[in-house]
Amino acid sequence: MAMDRYVITGGQPLEGSIRVSGAKNASLPLLAAALLAEGTSVLLDIPHLADVRNMLDVLEHLGCRVNWQDEALLINASSLRDWSVDEELMRRMRASNLILGPVLARHGRVKIAMPGGCAIGSRPMDQHLKGLAELGVKVKEKHGYIEAWTEELKGEHVYLDVPSVGATENLMMAAALARGTTLIHNAAREPEIVDLQNFLNKMGAKVRGAGLDVLRIEGVETLHPAEHAVIPDRIEAGTHIMAGVITQGDILVQNVIPEHLEPVVAKLRQAGARLEVYDDAVRVRPCGRLKAIDLKTMPYPGFPTDMQPQFMALLASAEGTSVITETIFENRFQHVDELRRMGARIRVEGRTAVVHGAETLEGAFVEATDLRAGAALFLAALGAGEATVLEKVGHIDRGYENLEEKYRGLGARLRRVRA
Ligand SMILES: CC(=O)N[C@H]1[C@@H](OP(=O)(O)OP(=O)(O)OC[C@H]2O[C@@H](n3ccc(=O)[nH]c3=O)[C@H](O)[C@@H]2O)O[C@H](CO)[C@@H](O)[C@@H]1O
Ligand SMILES: C=C(OP(=O)(O)O)C(=O)O
């Protein structure tokens, strides 16, 4: 991971327009789904991100041929030569666990190193494995590896204890090629699930219900390759909107699906942000100092955990005291210590952070501990009236395409210093 740093001189109102890239969290399951069919699938608007590169390395390791033709990503999954992925590849990114469902459906067998926990929490896989077991898969966990095999995938009723995004995706992909009908109860409802359903159906699958909490998947014999354009990244969009707000800027965030941003826009407006929502863009106008609000992360359509750190950066200089409750990941407050270095006054009690708004944030030396913590510090630095050195921006590269270039286009004063 790149250990480069950003030097950011904040306090400058951002101006102009910024275009959101394709969604990381929709792209990764789409890449995994391409494994389900022989032949070449074509994916459009896939962002050039470290996580996408890591997923492509996993696909190539399994035997796919991958190439970019201008902005189209071609994945040929005609001949898979391997069904196991070792620790080195798995550890680079948790989402590589999304190959479980498709490789089982194609091969009847799969072995992956356990993805393990990460900075934001322990992130177990029990719901993925429980669901696969319901579909007739035998699972063995040994020496840090998950091995799974099946004679035949069979449609079943699966009830998820938590509406896990990754488990829902893995089960959708496995069930697409299972014999009979699968119902996934308490499924995740995120927009990325809808995008995966759309791609699978273009491949010939019969999936219905994405966006609701019960998914119905009628298994088919085979799938064929398809072409699909990934949805815009709602977390990237939300981050840019917040950058406009924190700098008192006047910016147009383009290529958004406003419906996906409703929980974020609603909370920002409650805090006093001035936002104009158009068909495929959001305009941010200067609004003065924000007011404190309370916030709780929830599965979609609740407020997304992937925006909690960035919102905390905003509330750190709002007027009054905000209470932020993180219900999804048990350790997603690592940005708190770093924000404190910038003058934020935040107290953490278990899964709740009490944020006493400071008059202003100050420049400091800070470090990104994970992707969205990094995004939060990036925002805080843009809002601070002095220079901030933000270390370990490799974390940010996982989820934000061309960040430096995009923000220079808005007049931000920042430069990337190579390690
Ligand atoms: C690549 C991708 O799309 N990543 C997103 C995805 O991660 P990911 O798919 O890993 O997140 P999940 O929805 O699975 O996790 C949600 C919650 O369920 C728990 N859980 C999950 C699986 C399981 O088998 N058992 C279990 O208990 C997790 O610990 C967590 O508390 O959704 C998260 C929640 O919106 C986002 O923060 C991530 O950005
Ligand atoms: C937590 C995130 O991603 P991942 O699930 O890939 O770690 C994220 O995008 O904020």
From TrEMBL:
Binding-site positions, UDP-N-acetyl-alpha-D-glucosamine: R94, R123, P124, M125, D126, Q127, D306, I328
GO CC terms of this entry: cytoplasm
Single GO MF descriptor: UDP-N-acetylglucosamine 1-carboxyvinyltransferase activity
Chain residues that bind phosphoenolpyruvate: K24, N25
Any one Pfam family match given in the protein's UniProt record, by short name: EPSP_synthase
Keywords: Cell cycle, Cell division, Cell shape, Cell wall biogenesis/degradation, Cytoplasm, Peptidoglycan synthesis, Pyruvate, Transferase
Residues forming the catalytic site: C118 (proton donor)
Positions of post-translational 2-(S-cysteinyl)pyruvic acid O-phosphothioketal modification: C118
Family: Belongs to the EPSP synthase family. MurA subfamily.
Function (record text): Cell wall formation. Adds enolpyruvyl to UDP-N-acetylglucosamine.
Protein name: UDP-N-acetylglucosamine 1-carboxyvinyltransferase
Gene: murA
